[in-house]
Amino acid sequence: MTKATQAGVSRRGLLVGGAVLGLGMVIGRGALAQNRLSIPYSNKSLDYYFFVIQEASVKRAVLARSGEFQATNANFDNTRQLEQWQSLLLSRPSAIISDPIDSQAIVSAIRRYNREKIPVGIIDTPADGGDVAITVSFDNFQGGVMAAEEIVNRLITRYGRPKGTVLNCYGALASVAWRLRKEGMDSVFAKYPGITYLARPTDGQLEKMLSVTLSTLSEYPDLDAVHAPSDSPSRGIVTALQQKGRWKKIGEAGHVIFVNIDGEPIALKWIQDGYMDACISQDPVAYGEIAVDMIVKHALKGEAVPLGTYQDKKYFWESGEIVQGKTGPTLIIPAFVINRDNVQDPRHWAAVAEKTWGIPYT
Questions:
Q1: pLDDT under 50: residue ranges of the chain
Q2: Among 267, 236, 213, which Cα is nearest to 50's?
Q3: CATH 3.40.50.2300 in the chain, residue ranges
Q4: Regarding beta strands 225-228 and 257-262, do their DSSP bridges make them parallel or antiparallel, or are they unpaired?
Q5: Are 96 and 88 in contact (CB under 8 A)?
Q6: Model confidence over 257-306: pLDDT tens digits?
């Protein structure tokens, strides 16, 4: 997940973050112990519900272990995030977990913690260097591939062969996650010369997705499919389709095939209502929970996180592989498709966040 600067979304995100997570210090039951567990979380933003849930996941996992928790919000300001890492270092935490804004810029901060022998956990956006105790992320390239394949299969069903016009409202390429999603999608459509593939930049912003989709619909009124690399800003796409009379249910004349990545509650609702064809999901609930678990069980004991199969059936994806990545042990959570056949599964992270944790989607 990456940057969104749409008006209103930031205010809603901050309200949710402040009310639900608490942006200051939350002291666990063991905070007064001499060797207390203290794991702060450095968040890139609270603009997306996705980021709110990542933070909630880390917080819940730390407090469940009677630890001390603190969260910072850089609000997509890379300099601010680096300053926050430095400030957190002064408190000598047991470890730190973060979703970096900039994969390369965060390396210097990670190395500072390495020198102090404080374990680092990275979730969502992998770092480009440093020694990271555990990275829990998503195969963003494969996510892009799967989203493209979902679209291609539906075009074949529609026309009997791979043809049509597809709009990819891709996000800011400075983000490793969004860049890989675009590259994955590009790699699939490069195989299908009969498909007109329009990859157009939006920086992952709602307003730009709205304007790009509107202009594309004017240029290509018979647009067959549209994709966004994240659900939240894709509301701009939905608004554009509504304004052009193209917000149609699957099976209705004029339906625009709609496939995204992330799996937010709004995507589940669109699928349930019959407007969205599919969504490739990741799992922010698992990111935070697993990162804390691996740090406490292994890194804080001076052990390397063991490589091999990770299994937990409480997650929809159930099983993934911890491999040796560029910065250390890395769990790449396998991408999976949410569609109308499985959208009701209670293990989807959006269902856990809304229905089990009670964090409203706004």
A1: 2-34
A2: 267
A3: 9-28+36-132+283-334, 140-281
A4: parallel
A5: yes
A6: 999 999 999 999 999 999 999 999 999 999 999 999 999 999 999 999 99
Q: Which CATH number is 140-281 given?
A: 3.40.50.2300
Q: CA 198 to CA 193: how far, in whole Å?
A: 12
pLDDT for 204-239, tens place per residue?
A: 999 999 999 999 999 999 999 999 999 999 999 999
Task: Please tell me the predicted confidence (pLDDT) of residue 22.
Answer: 43
Instruction: Specify the pTM.
Output: 0.84
Tokens in use for 206?
């709602």
pLDDT at 1: 55
Phi-psi category of 204—alpha, beta or left, where left has phi over 0 and alpha has psi -120 to 50? left
In CATH, the architecture of 9-28+36-132+283-334 is 3-Layer(aba) Sandwich (3.40)
Burial level of 269, CB count in 10 A (0-12/13-18/19+)? middle
What distance in Å separates the CA atoms of residue 113 and residue 163, rounded to the nearest whole number?
Answer: 52
25-26, strands of its sheet edge to edge: 25-26, 69-73, 41-43, 96-98, 120-124, 134-138, 329-333, 319-324, 308-311
In whole angstroms, give the CA distance from residue 304 to residue 255: 50
Q: Are strands 69-73 and 278-281 parallel, antiparallel or unpaired?
A: unpaired
